[in-house]
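Practice problem: predict the structure.
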Amino acid sequence: MNSAMNHAATAAPPSPWVLRWAHLARAGGRVLDLACGSGRHAAWFAARGHAVLGVDRDGAALAALPAGIETLQADLEQGAWLLAGRAPFDAIVVTNYLHRPLWPHLIAALAPGGVLIYETFAAGNETVGKPSNPDFLLRPGELLDAVRGGLRVVAYEDGVLEVPRTAFVQRLCAVREAAREGEGKGGGEGGQAGAGAPPRYLLPG
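Answer:
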């Protein structure tokens, strides 16, 4: 078992939302795990052959990530966007983190066909626990507004989770569609069925 697989096996389990949509990331493609913390998603993608960049301000957490995962210690809420020279990415994963000024940068950092998988706390969470500061809670429909005009939304949910604890969340999976031959734009998992064919995004279940 390599170090990424071992870490993935012993760390907190990945978000079911991330697992549900991970198949839309290009096989072996580059993955950005933003505000990665303990690296549960970074390790999961690395164990499956992706080139992963984990970014967080916690140097100790980054140091504990498996060998082979590229890391960057940075305060994402201070100074200029640090990842312009490292883009594009085939997948960007963000969970339990919200800093709205980063949204345009994340959309721009996606490669054609790249997928954004986002999940964090939403308004209403202040009634059940932390975070309760509205600065860290998504307003109704806010993730949809953030990607409108830039990405194609494949899936979106806004509701309450009961496991591992009660929490109000919004979560989104959206794709930067690649230009396709024949008409408009397309791309995504499964490739193209032919010139001008619409993209196919496999919906689990």
